[in-house]
Specification:
Layout: H1 2-15, E1 23-24, E2 32-37, E3 42-50, E4 58-66, H2 91-94, E5 100-105, E6 108-113, E7 134-141, E8 144-151, H3 154-157
Antiparallel strand pairs: 1-2, 2-3, 3-4, 5-6, 7-8
Length: about 160
């Protein structure tokens, strides 16, 4: 039995089966936020709504909101890089959960993670306001040009 559960967990992790848990948008709201990816400006919500064919039944409705930053750069840390013209969104990558969880299988505790390919870096289309980004800029000081780092997100780079 233990080996069967271990095999199921390993298979689910290797195939990238996504178990998504959400949280309510508001205290009395029945809409749940499944993904809130600030790096790629995407929010995915879901809620049950009456079916159009049969109002007695409820169907699951998913809403995907994508905010496309118009002045995004290919390299967000380089203000001189060209403007980004291609934005790629994969729902499976947005929903992946790379946080390891502990599972009790037959009395033994095993660690598993719900997402696969968690080692790959995520492409960000805008700044994470909680992270400090800087870029070198030329500064003329006493007749000498020096490259100094300039904060691109000053609020997150300097303590209040």
């Amino acid at each position: 039995m233990k080996s069967t559960w271990s095999l199921c967990v390993a298979l689910a992790v290797s195939l990238g089966i996504i178990l998504v848990a959400g949280y309510p948008v508001g205290p009395s709201d029945e809409e749940y936020v499944l993904v809130n990816n600030k790096c790629q400006c995407v929010t995915v919500t879901s809620k049950f709504v009456p079916s159009q064919e049969n109002p007695e039944e409820e169907v699951l409705e998913r809403n995907i909101r994508i905010i496309v930053p118009l002045k995004a750069r290919e390299n967000i840390s380089d203000p001189l890089s060209p403007l980004r013209t291609t934005f790629v969104y994969r729902l499976s990558e947005l929903c992946k959960n790379c946080e390891p969880i502990e599972i009790d299988l037959g009395g033994a505790i095993h660690q598993a993670q719900q997402g696969n390919s968690c080692e790959e870096p995520q492409t960000c289309y805008t700044y994470d306001r909680n992270e400090c980004y800087s870029s070198p800029v030329p500064l003329l000081y006493h007749g000498e040009v020096m490259q100094v780092p300039a904060a691109l997100t000053p609020d997150s780079c300097f303590a209040q």
